[in-house]
Write a structure and sequence with these properties.
By secondary structure, this protein is α/β, with parallel strands linked by helices. It is globular and about 65 Å long. The protein has 2 domains: about 5-110, HUPs (Rossmann fold); about 150-275, Rossmann fold (3-Layer(aba) Sandwich). The chain has a 10-stranded mixed β-sheet, with helices on both faces. The chain has helices spanning about 20-30, 50-75, 90-100, 115-120, 125-135, 165-185, 200-210, 225-235, 250, 255-265; strands spanning about 5-10, 35-40, 80-90, 105-110, 140, 150-155, 185-195, 215-220, 240-245, 270-275.
């Protein structure tokens, strides 16, 4: 059962002063009353001689702690509960998910940027690493939206036959409904299908998700193509999708549906991670 979000883990990008993830996290915290855990990981100074490494790490942590304290002060003055954490690790991508687990976060928020298929194939991006190692839902912030959320788009696959995929549909539908009710947003649903023989009836989709027939979108297309098309017609909806945990050899495969959707849309996306049965 999905419960209320009580702690948000917000990932800070130390390479830029523009922190869209923090803006979104603060807005959600202000609406929900959730506590914020603001996190940044900086390189571990592994390129320095061993005798200099500890002092350099301590200096980097102190410098970034001061930077974070200044960054979150306005949020604390607004009455938000904010904790900060600075970690020093040469494998900063791999450090993020364990930090979120330690913080016992109910929601992880991270800025995400469009990447090409080649970049996804050649690079283990921070998005890639996070999706394969974190357990909490992850919101990837793609926009600088300041207006209130108006629409939530649940992406499902009603034709799925395997039990773990059906359970993933249930997670997406429940979470999307929770967000829509909490924010007073319209609930939309989208289901792509391969070939006319696999046609999904819009009324069936609307009934399954719990929304109006006019808000059920289907199409014979790849999921990322149809979701991108639907989001362009709507008003920057929050897209809710699911992803089965990909461990071992399966986790080494770059380019799963969640990542392709991230690169196809220009709106915020929440990915729900479910362990495989």
């Amino acid at each position: 059962m999905i419960t209320k979000v009580s702690k948000i883990f917000c990932i800070i990008d130390p390479t830029t002063p523009e922190q869209r993830a923090l803006k979104r996290a603060a807005a959600i915290a202000a609406e929900s009353g959730a506590a914020l855990h603001v996190y940044v990981c900086v390189p571990g100074q592994g390129n320095l001689p061993a005798e200099d490494r500890d002092d350099a790490r301590a200096a980097e942590i102190a410098r970034h702690e001061a930077w974070l304290r200044e960054m979150v002060r306005p949020l604390q003055e607004q009455g938000l509960s904010v904790a900060i954490e600075v970690e020093c690790d040469d494998d900063w991508r791999g450090a993020i998910a364990p930090a979120a687990q330690r913080a016992k976060a109910d929601l992880v928020i991270k800025a995400s940027y469009r990447r090409t298929a080649i970049q996804r194939r050649l690079l283990k991006t921070s998005d890639w690493t996070l999706l394969r190692n974190v357990e909490a839902p992850v919101m990837f912030v793609k926009t600088d939206r300041v207006e209130p959320l108006r629409q939530v788009l649940a992406a499902v696959n009603l034709a799925a036959e395997k039990a773990d995929h059906q359970a993933l549909n249930d997670m997406v539908i429940e979470y999307a409904n929770m967000i829509a009710k909490a924010t007073g947003s319209e609930l939309h649903a989208v289901n792509a299908y391969p070939g006319s023989l696999n046609f999904i009836h819009p009324p069936d989709l609307a009934k399954r998700v719990g929304t109006e027939r006019s808000r059920a979108h289907v199409g014979d297309a790849a999921p990322e193509a149809l979701i991108s098309e639907v989001t362009e017609k709507l008003a920057q909806p929050l897209v809710v999708i699911g992803s089965l945990a990909r461990k071992g050899l399966g986790g080494a495969v770059v380019g799963n549906t969640a990542e392709r959707i991230l690169d196809a849309v220009d709106t915020d996306v929440i990915v729900l991670i479910r362990p495989r049965d």
